[in-house]
Amino acid sequence: YLTIKLFYFIWNTLAVFAIVVIFKKTYSSLKIGINKDLRDIKGVKDVLLKKVASVISSTYPALLLGILLGTNIVSVYGVYMLVISGLSSIIDSFATGPKDSLGLLLSEGDKKKSYDIFNKYTFIIVSISALFFSTAVVLMISFVKIYTSGVTDADYINQTFSIILCISAFVGAIQGPYTNILNGASIFKKPRIYQIVGAVVLLIIAVPLVHFFGIVGLAISVLVHNLIVTISKMIITYEYFKYGEKDLFKYLLFILVPQVIISSLLMLFLNVQNKITSYFDFTIFGIIIFLSNLLILFVSTMLPFKSIYSYFANRFVRKIRK
User: Fold this and answer.
1) Mean pLDDT calculated for residue range 3-24
2) Three-state SS for 242?
3) For residues 174 and 237, is the Cβ–Cβ distance under 8 A?
4) Does residue 48 contact residue 16 with C-beta atoms inside 8 Å?
5) Is the dihedral of CA 63, 64, 69, 75 positive or negative?
6) pLDDT digits (tens, 9 = 90+) for 139-175
7) Total Cβ atoms within 10 A of residue 76
8) Of 45, 40, 38, 84, whose CA–CA distance to 61 is shortest?
9) Cβ atoms 1, 78 nearer than 8 A
10) Nearest-CA neighbor of 201 among 170, 182, 222, 174?
């Protein structure tokens, strides 16, 4: 796993420089470094810097673990990230789908209409993210136990690490709508600044936290990084629209809080770690827990987000009638 992450880091770093070289050769008439008028390619430097910061934040954790704690701990990290990456990819597929449509919508100049669509889009992503990771936090240790059965090179069971990692992944997943709306609005500079700040903070705090708290310290570092990046994108987005902050609190109160409560209760009283001993058990309990979380999600959001449910219900009925 460490070798793959190291290769990924080197490849992406070289890719950034390759893009710069190819761009200079292809658009040599722009004379970058001499002619500072880059209005036709607004945001290029910001995007490149964001890419560098993103590469650092995605590859640094595994590299740091390998250096400070050894490759065995990287294997532990890799098993948990196998689940997190899979869930994040599913959520990302939902988040990236409408990004081109968002850009087109924003180009019309109607911010009220744009925000109305953005709010529905964000509701979907936050709901899916909360549903997936509230289920994952209950089942993660059970999966790791089954997946690493018979493997003795390291202690793979770490409940605290699992919980913090799931929270961090949720925070990272919900930034998708905000990222896409800012890209669609061609707002690159402010997000770039906070992306770099997040990467620098990760570089600085990860070393002492990993030294004192081990792999849990790494999870805390990644959580802090994700909080900085996600919260900053939220602030910039609501500044762009000039309203909508109350909807953010509705997401937290009616989506996140109920999912945290039901997940905590399931972890305390269901005791799945001792009941799940095979992939069959994992599948059955996974379906039950997922449906339980889905039911809670629907009940907790049905009234506060009634207009959104009505919107999608009406669209569904119109499609059937066609």
Assistant:
1) 64
2) coil
3) no
4) yes
5) negative
6) 999 999 999 998 888 889 999 999 999 999 999 999 9
7) 24
8) 84
9) yes
10) 222
Helices (H), the chain: 2-26, 44-68, 71-96, 99-107, 111-147, 159-173, 176-184, 189-213, 215-241, 245-251, 257-269, 272-275, 279-301, 306-321
Average confidence (pLDDT) over 255-283: 90
In 3D space, the residue among 220, 101, 82, 105 whose CA is nearest the CA of residue 160 turns out to be 220
Residue 259 is encoded by which pair of tokens? 């999912």
Contact 172, 226 (CB under 8 A): yes
- What letter represents residue 311's amino acid? Y
Say if residues 214 and 265 touch (Cβ distance below 8 Å).
Answer: no
**Short-list 75, 222, 250, CA closest to 152:** 75
pTM across the whole model: 0.84
Q: For the packed helices 71-96 and 159-173, what is the interaxial angle rounded to 10 degrees? A: 30
Tell me the C-alpha distance between 260 and 275, whole Å.
22
Smallest Cα–Cα separation from 122: which of 134, 133, 114? 114
| Each residue's pLDDT tens digit, 186-198 | 888 888 888 889 8
Structure tokens of 144?
């790791």
Distance CA 2, CA 15 (A): 20
- Three-class SS of residue 271? coil
